Amino acid sequence: MGSESSQQVYRLRAAVSGRESIVPVEEGVLYRDAETGEELVPVARVLPLSRSVSSLPRTPENLRVCRRCEQFTPRDLAVCEFCGLPA
Ligand SMILES: [Zn+2]
Fold first, then answer.
1. Rounded to the nearest whole angstrom, what is the distance from the C-alpha of residue 51 to the centroid of ligand 1?
2. Domain coordinates of the chain in residue numbers?
3. What's the CA-to-centroid distance between 24 and ligand 1, angstroms?
4. Residues 16-38: tens digit of each pLDDT
5. Gap from CA of 73 to ligand 1 centroid (Å)
6. What are phi and psi of 80, to 5 degrees?
7. What protein residues have CB closer than 5 angstroms to ion ligand 1?
8. Contact call for residues 32 and 41 (beta carbons, < 8 A)
9. How confident is the model at residue 52 (pLDDT cuts 50, 70, 90)?
10. How confident is the model at residue 84 (pLDDT cuts 50, 70, 90)?
11. CA–centroid distance, residue 47 to ligand 1 (Å)
């Protein structure tokens, strides 16, 4: 109790239909496609990682391009989220 949520957003895929959903996943919870009822399995973790310290939504106006690694990094961070280069 009182601890921060460490929910991670995953891309889930239904094995048969190939339908995909992007949802925050809680450990031990089984996810099913809302329409087909198929079980969804995680196929990829979606950026940003939960360890990101940025609280901004990942939209173009909140991101800048790092001049060293050329990744999009949140504007509210003092350093690049990927390579650590100061803004
Ligand atoms: Zn960088």
1. 16
2. 8-46, 51-87
3. 26
4. 888 888 777 887 888 888 888 88
5. 7
6. -60, 135
7. 66, 68-69, 80, 82-83, 85
8. no
9. low
10. very high
11. 15
Ligand 1 centroid–CA 80 distance in Å is 5
Residue 3 pLDDT more than 50? no
SS (H, E, C) the chain: CCCCCCCEEEEEEECCCCCEEEEEECCCCCEECCCCCCEEEEEEECCCCCCCCCCCCCCHHHEEECCCCCCEEECCCCECCCCCCEC
Q: Are 48 and 42 in contact (CB under 8 A)?
A: no
How far is the C-alpha of 42 from the C-alpha of 34, rounded, in Å?
16
Ligand 1 centroid to residue 63 C-alpha, Å: 12
What is the value of pTM for the model shown? 0.44
Averaged pLDDT, 7-24: 82
